[in-house]
Specification:
The chain is mainly beta. The chain is built from one helix and seven strands, in the order αβββββββ.
Length: about 120
Amino acid sequence: MRSAFLSLAAAAFALTLTSTGAMAGQQDFSIVNKTGYPIKHIYVSEANNNSWDEDVLGRDVLNDSESFDLQFGKAEKTCKWDMKVTYDDGESAIWEDLNLCQISKLTLKWNQKTGVTSATAE
C-alpha cells in the first residue's frame, strides 16, 4: 500500500536539506508522524551499513500526529545516517544518507495517490 522513496528519491530529498541545524556530534532530531498510519518500528543506522541497528521505538508505536525524539550520545561524530520506518501492516519506507548534523526534525507524510511516504526536513 505505501511504498518507499528509493535511492534516487532519497538523493533528491538529500539535496533539499538546509544547512541550518546542529553541528557535528549533535545528531538529535525529532520524527513527526503525519502519515495517517501508526509506525511500529524506526531503525537508524550509519549510512552504508549493511544491517539495521535495533528499533529505536522499542515496544512503543508512533501513532499519527505523534512525534518521537531521538537522541545520540555526545561522543557520536557520524553525520550521515539511513532510516527505515515500518508501519503496523508491514510496509516500510527507507531514506538514505540523511545528514543528521543538519536536521532537527523530519516530518513523515504518506501520499495516498502516489503511494509514497515522503519526509520533510527542518
